[in-house]
Specification:
Structural class: mainly alpha
Number of helices: 2
Helix content: 55-70%
Shape: elongated
Oligomer: single chain
Number of strands: 0
Mean pLDDT: 85
């Protein structure tokens, strides 16, 4: 990951462990999708339960790996939206 945005100069990692919060986005969406998928498969199809179990287990492993970068960008966006104290008025970073 680039340490600084090439377009605006925003420093992405403000401190060690900054992106720990992005795990909540990743985990939350994965858990939500697996829960919805399970109930949809359980009540909406006649698929065998082992197939549903292994499919959702594979999803739990592969989806977070794919969604990792998007969870980080959501975290940065949320941080920039709610914490405007470090935003210089002209948009340039130190």
């Amino acid at each position: 990951m680039e340490p600084v945005c090439t377009g605006c100069g925003l420093k992405y990692q403000r401190e060690p462990g900054y992106f720990l919060g992005s795990i909540y986005f990743n985990y939350g969406l994965t858990a939500f999708l697996v829960t919805v998928g399970y109930f949809a498969a359980f009540f909406g199809t006649d698929l065998p339960q082992p197939l549903v179990l292994w499919s959702l287990t594979a999803f739990c492993v592969l989806f977070p790996l794919w969604f990792f970068r998007y969870a980080r960008s959501l975290w940065v966006g949320m941080d920039r939206y709610f914490d405007r104290s470090d935003n210089p008025p002209n948009g340039e970073q130190e």
